[in-house]
Structures are given as structure tokens and as C-alpha cells.
Amino acid sequence: MRRFIRRNAAGYFFLSPWLLGFGLLALGPILASLYLSFTRYDMVSAPVWDGLGNYHYMLEYDRRFWKALEVTFTFVALSVPLRLAMALGVAMLLDKGLRTIGLYRAIFYLPSLLGASIAIALLWREMFGIDGVVNQVLAVFGIEGKGWITDPDTSLYTIVVLAMWQFGSPMLIFLAGLRGIPRDLYEAAEIDGTSKWRQFWRITLPMLAPVVFFNLVLQTIEAFKTFTSAFIISNGTGAPADSLLFYTVYLFNEAFKFFRMGYASALAWVLLIIIAAFTALAFATSKYWVHYENERD
Amino acid sequence: MLYPLIWLFASSLKPENEIFGSLDLWPSKVDWSNYTEGWNALPVSFTVFYKNSAIVTVLSVIGNLLSCSFAAYAFARLKFNGRTFLFALMMMTMMLPYHVVLIPQYVLFLNLGWVDTYLPLIVPRFLAADGFFIFLMVQFFRQIPRELDEAAMIDGCSPFKIYWAIILPLSLPAMGTAAIFSLIWVWEDFLAPLIYLNDINSYTVPLALRLFVDQEGQSAFGQMFAMSVLSLVPVLIFFVAFQKLIIRGIATSGMK
Amino acid sequence: MRITRRHLLASIGGASALAALPGLPAFAQERTIRHFWWGNPTRDKNTFAVIDLFQKAHPDIKVSGETIGWGDYWTKMATQTAGGNMADVIQMAHTFIHEYVGRGAIKPLDEYVGNGISLDHYDDGANEVGTIDGQLYGINIGSTTQAIPYNIKAFEDAGVTADLLGWTTEDFADACAKITEASGGAMRGSEDLSLYIENLEVWVRSTGRDLYAPDGGLEMTEEDVRSYWEFWGGLRDDGIVEGKDATVILDKGMAELGITRGTTAMTFRYANQVGAVQSLMTDPVGAAMVPQRPGTSNGHYVLPSMFLCLTRDAKDIDAAAAYIDYWISNPDALKALGIDRGIPPSQLGRDAIAPTLSEVDQNVVAFFGGIQDKVGPVPNATPKGAGEVRDAFMRTGTEVVLGNMPADEAAGRFIQDAEAILIRANR
């Protein structure tokens, strides 16, 4: 027993704020939402037990649930790689070339600052509208534009572009990671005459793997949960023709617009299972490509 | 890249009836009145909103950095029973859409008597509620060579000493990143203040910005844009100041 | 270190947390009520002015004014309702009142009418829509009706001379053609209103039916919806209303309307919103009736743009009733509130605001007076799920506007969806 305490004391001491927060503030609400997912709950009257009713309806009858999944999966598949590539590219530029100029970093981060504002929604519709700046630029190249954001076939891509444009946070994390790579590794490679391209594959990527892993996992989680941009740009409706019906937009509307918090909770737990599966997959494969400094356990 | 920002700034200089009616990017006549009038256009002055935001943000950032680095140190460096399981639980808290825990959490805070105070906004941050920062720090802590801990351990350093004297100073880029994100996200946080603050005198800046626009009625877009531009200023200053930490951290740490 | 942290927290949060605890001796004598509304800068200033006036008259009652914009209001309202922490007095919209009343979140006011709350000065029938199942749940704090805001200058330039308080859909189409032609296509006659169920409502009602039946089912028919979408499809094909790209953006804010952007001369709004349209434009704006098909009439009705309600969670009901009464009856309060929430539903209120009216407000008041003999009865109660039916209407209609589905097929699909929605919402 004493050995148990001695072995664990330090760990639990440092974990105590989190344990306290998790136990007191997070666990209860999480379990409550799990319970509510088995009920019909309109937020005014008491919840009514409904067994698997919500899950059954979702999988069997709810066309919009499948539509929301389709929209969200498409978005995740496109936006996560593009955004990470963009963020890594710019971070490497900033790390190498523009190291001393803080202002540049600020400029690249600025779009991310505007993330959730109403102004962005107005602006995005303005830019990708039929008379918008995007079409004016395309016209210069002789391409006839269209209402990108109002055509259900292309509207999702405008949100992907928005996600790429707001690459500030993964970029900053990449940058912090790049700064942690010892310079002498590159110097040695230079002396050996290794090309820049090989340096990237042999040094940068392996050394950066823990940060790449972090960004991949977190960006995937966030992409699955994308809410604000789609919500404000579609005025909360997922329009046109449900092409912007992101999973959490649908979930929010079910809960707060249509008074079906029980159903929304079921939707949330299904999403949690999906995200958890992807995250578990990422962790499982990570041992083949993410190596930590002197990791032995 | 910057077109949207220019648009936002230009719009803040336009009179109300020109913002959407005219296609010109730049106003016909530059007019700063949206700034001067916008500051006091709401029943409570923006001086109060900024003060409120500052209190919430500063405390939250401190809370996040302390509590999350504690937890991250435990997950990254210490061995204890149940570590993998607890780490998985921590990851899970990030996966559940916030909207479905909103109501149970509201009921919880209501029973604690915390609604209409800043406690629901601040206390969770001292209790490492944001897994993002824990995971971020874990990834960076794991990069620090273990020989350093082991040498310190042999010298008789306590785990706390190792955390404080070795891990933290060697993680300045990570801590700087976390500080920047934490500040920006708390500063811009909208949903929690919306739900937990009732009295307009306690509103934060993002909440106040929402008071300008009514989809259904009279709005003051020009003033909203002007105040939005101003609300970016403190964040930018902080960003420029703190990103030096990311850049300089390594140079001064003596780490190879 | 941890002591400091706790100390900090206590000093920041502790004081306000204590103040929020009910029943502490120091505050026991003070009566407090909370009033929650959705607002905008003008409305918030006006409403806080009324709160100040009220507190001067009733120093023993403290009123906490709480406000946020329309979209966020309902999220917060739902959360507070779920937590059992609704404000004592809240503002309600006709689109939501049945959802809240039907679930028991709002208290009936009948026992306080004439007993704390005086409604004697109200117009006859002004509180009909707020009376649900024979009990008064929502007090009308501003009357309104459906309207077509129009650009007066564009109408003059195009030489449109139709009687705007009695025109038909044919006159409307004619006006759209003239305006489009006069502007060389730069300005279309109107927004495409295909996706506005509020406008469909006038279309359906002018034949004597409502959107919803008294039993909560549908009263509109597939034929109503098909003919409505085909009418607008015709105008779209003629190029005299806005194209599909502007139409499929749903729930547009004021700043995105064709009329405020100058791309159309007309749109659909409620009469009380015409002033807000004007504030975003330079050309003068007037209000016209919604055009009705030849041979039909009375599609319009007078409805409250907003209600004042007493909630299930109200504790000091006498104080809340005193506040409500002051709000709706005191001439100073009425004057301070102005016309922002709609036209006061009493002569007392209209007299109070008369000296303060702007030109556009005067137009709205004149419009409202002019249609009084042309409105129909109030519609059947809106069932739970109506909000979702509205979304389904816009969604299915979008397919028609985009040309992906013919109007008849879409109408059939919408009616089917709507029936399923109502069953699910009311089981």
C-alpha cells in the first residue's frame, strides 16, 4: 500500500486540479447528456425515458442526419489536410526566412482572430457571391464565375477555403515545434551535402512528428465539431439545400430551435463515438511514425 | 489574404446607409464617428466591457497555464496507475459537442449560486478544463530529453522542482503558444458569457458586440465594425509581445 | 501559490456570488425582478430609460434589465428555462409563444388583469393572438401586420401608380416589370419571396383558410403551395425578381435584403420593421400591402410584433405585475419606448408617441391605419413544430428556386414532410 502511494503520489498531485475539475464540473454534465440521449427532453418539461428511441429514429428515419454526416465527412477529409499543409508551409517560411519580423506572423494570424464574428459571415457571402471579389478576379482570367456560396454544389468548398484561410493556430504550433529542432542537425546535413528536400524528410518531419501528430488529432476533432463558421454563414439554417448542414449545426438546431435536447444528445454521442474511433486510430498508428525524444516506456 | 480585414476597417469608417448599399470598398468620406459614438452607444460604456473582459481573460490565462501544465507534466513525465485511462477520458472531454453539456452544466452552476458571476468562466480554467492545452503541453514536454529529469532526480530534486526548474523553462515556446491561444480564445469567447452573465454591467466585449446587431430590426453595423476593430487591438499587442517567447525561448534555454 | 489563487478568486467572484444568493439579510427588504428582452442599441436605450422611470416611481422594486440580440436570445432563453431560472418578465415572439405556452413555461395573466394590470385602454381584439386556449399569456406591446416595404423613389421613377393598399398579384407583377425596365435591369422589382412562409400565409389566408387547422394539423394544401411557388417561378422566369443566388440565402438580416442593397425595390417584412429598413438606405421607404390574387382578400391580420409575458419562474408576481402595468400604461414610459417594438395597441400609446415620430414612422402609422378595414380575423393557433415546418418550407422551396424540382413535386413533398414534422413534435 505504501509503495502504491509512493509510486502514485506525485502523479496524482499534479493531476489533482484536472481530477477535481473533471470530477466536479465535467463528469456530471457528460453523464447527464448520456442519460438525456435516451430520453425525450424539450428543456421545459421533465425528460421522458425513451430507451433507444432517439438512436433508432436517427439511424432508421432521419434523412438529415445522414446528410449532415456526409457534409461533415467531406469537410473533414478536405479541410484537415489542406489546412495542415498550409499551416506547415507558412510556418517553415516564417521559421527560415522571416524570423525577425514579428509583424508577419501577426498578419498570418489575423484571419484566425476574426473567426466567429458576424462580419465574417457577411463578408464571405459578399466575396463568394455572384458579384463578389472572387468572380471579379476570375473574370480577369476570362473565367465566368457563379454564386459559389449559393450553389449547393460548391458552397461547402467556400467553408473549406475559410478553414484554410484561418490556419493561424496550427501554424503557430508548428512554428513553436520548428523552433525546438536543434540547429546543429541541419548544419551537419549541410556539411554532408544533403539536399533541402531530403533535410525536410530526414530531419524536419521526424523531429516535428509529435507536433504534427498533435495538430492532426486536434484539427480532426475540431473539424468534426465545426460549428460557428457554417452556422453564421448559413444564417443558422445549413442552407442552401442543406449543403452546409454540418453535424453540429444540425445538432444545435435540433436542441435549441426545435426543443429536442434528448435527440441532440443522442446525436452528440454518436459524433463522439465517430471522433473517438478516428482519434484511437491516430494513436494506434502513431507508434510507427511519432518518436519522442528518449522515450522508453 | 488581408482583403477581409481591409473591408472590415473600411466599413467601420462608413455611414450606416452606405455600408451595404454601396459597392465601393473605401468610404466616400472617411468618418470616425462610429468609433467615438460606438464607444458609448450602448447603455453601458465600452470602458466597462473592456474591464470585465480583462478580468476574465487575465485570470483565465493564468489558470489555464498553471493547471494545464500541471496535468500535462503528470501525463508526460510521471508514472501512475490509470494514466492511460485518464488520458483517454481527458481526450474524450474534447470530443463531445459543447452544446449538449451546456444545460446540465448550467444547472450545476445555478445550484452552486454561480450564475451571473464570473466564476463559471474562471474556475474551470483553474481546474484544467481545456484538454487542448493539456495535450499540447504533453506533446512538447515529451520532447525534452529525459536525461535532464533523471540527472535532477539523482541529485534529489522533487518532482515539483523538476517541473518548475527544468520542464517549464525548457517549454517556453509551448507555454507562449498556450498563452496566446488561451488569451485569444478567452477574449473572444462568446457562448459561456452569453449563458452565464445576465447583468449588462458584467458583459464582456464579444457579448457587447452582439448588442449592436438585430437581424430583425434596427442595427448599428458601422459601430459594430468599429468596436470589432478596436477589440482586436489588445489581442494583437499581446500576440506581438508573446510570440517573442516562441522565437526566443530556445535561444535562451541553453538546450541544444 | 495556491493560497494566492484562492484568494484571487474569492476577491473577484466572491462578492458578486454573494450578491446573487437570494434571501441574504442585507438584501431581504429589496424586491427584485428581472426583465429579459431581445434588443438593439435603440431598443436597449429606450427600455433602460423605462426601467429608470419605473424605479423612480417604485423605489422599493429593483429591476434588472437583461438584453441580447435576437439569435442569441433564444439559446439563452432555452437554457434558462431548462434551468428553472427564467427572468420574471420576458419578451416573446408570435413564432415562439406557442412553443413556450404549450410546455407550461409561461403563466396566464387573467387573474391580474384589472387587478394590478390594466388593459382597459387597449384596442378591441388587440390581445387576441396572445390569448391561447381562452387564457391570456402574452400582452401585446406593439401591433404590426405583414407588409411589402418598397423604395418610393424607384416606384416614382418607374411610374408605378397601383393602389398599394389594395393591389393584386397582377398589379404587383406589372410593377416589377416596370421597375426592372426603368432601371435597365440594375434594379429588379422585388426579391423572390418564394421562400417566405410568412408571405405564403397571406396567400393561403386570402382564400379563407389558414396555414394550420384548429386541431394543430395542416390547413394549407398542396395546391396552395404549388400555385404560390409557380407564381414566383413565373416572375423569376421573366427576370423581374431577383435571381436564385440572392434567394437561396435564408433568414437574411436587414443588411442583406435586396431593398437595402439597392438590387430590388421591394421585399417582405412586418410593418414595424420598415423603419429599420430605412435606417440602412438613403432612398425613402414606404409600406405596401402584400398583393392578393384577384378576387381574394383579407389575407393580412393584425398581430403583436412582440408580447410581454410573465414566466413560470417569476417569484414576486406583484412586483412583476406592477412593472408590466407601468410599461404598458404609463404615458412617459410609452413615450420613451417609441415605435421600435411596433405600433402601440392603444390610443393612449399612440397619442404618447405621436410627437416623436419620424417621417418613415409616420408612413408606417398611416399604412397601419389604412389597412384596418382590409385585415382578416386572427389565424388559428400555431402548433408546436411550426418553426420546423417553416424550415422545411424554405428547404424544399430552395429546390424549386434552383430548378432541381418542379413546383408540383416539391409541394407534395413539403406537405408530406410538414405532416410528419407536426406528428413528431406533438406526440
Task: Describe the overall structure.
- The complex is a heterotrimer of chains A (297), B (256) and C (427).
- Chain A has helices spanning 2-36, 53-60, 63-96, 102-113, 118-127, 133-140, 155-165, 168-179, 183-192, 196-224, 228-233, 247-257, 261-289; strands at residues 39-40, 48-49.
- Chain A is an all-alpha fold and 297 residues long.
- Chain A has a two-stranded antiparallel ribbon with strand order 1-2.
- Chain B has helices spanning 3-12, 16-19, 33-38, 46-77, 83-95, 102-111, 119-126, 131-141, 146-154, 159-170, 172-188, 191-196, 205-209, 221-253.
- Chain B starts with a helix and ends with a helix.
- Chain B is elongated and about 70 Å long.
- Chain B is mainly alpha-helical and 256 residues long.
- Chain C folds into 2 domains: 5-21 and 28-142 and 304-359, 3-Layer(aba) Sandwich (D-Maltodextrin-Binding Protein, domain 2); 146-300 and 385-425, D-Maltodextrin-Binding Protein, domain 2 (3-Layer(aba) Sandwich).
- Chain C has helices spanning 2-20, 41-57, 70-83, 97-102, 152-158, 169-182, 197-205, 222-237, 244-247, 258-261, 274-279, 317-329, 331-337, 347-353, 359-370, 386-401, 407-425, and strands at 31-38, 61-68, 89-92, 106-107, 131-132, 135-136, 139-140, 143-144, 146-151, 269-270, 285-288, 303-304, 307-311.
- The A-C interface holds A 42-45, 122, 125, 129-130, 146-147, 150-152, 234-237, 239-242, 253, 255-259, 261 and C 71, 74-75, 78-79, 81-82, 99-100, 103-105, 243-246, 248-253, 255-256, 384-385, 387-388, 391, 394-395, 398-399, 402, 404, 425.
